Amino acid sequence: EMAKTKGSSKKQQKRGIDFKKIKRKIDRKLPPPKNTTNTEIKSNAIVLPKQSAASEKAGLAVSKKGLTLKELLQHTSHHNVKVHERCLDGHEGFIPQSSRRA
Question: Which of 6, 47, 75, 81 has a beta carbon 3.0–4.6 Å from 87's, enabling a disulfide?
């Protein structure tokens, strides 16, 4: 019996602290592993009140389709021909009736 206890104590010394067994108490939850990754994400909403499309158009003249003159002018350089035509039709809404040619 003495030989068995001596042999086991030598093995424990060789193993060292790296492989030390932690004794658990009954009915206790296991602690989380040491190599877990925290996946919690925190975020806040950013509110930019000056970048609303509706607030930009407030007080400006708009065409029948709700486009401002600036937006219609941007459509004049569009690659699609039909967009050009719709853009020029929209410009007519900004020209007063008296100055239009027949």
Answer: 75
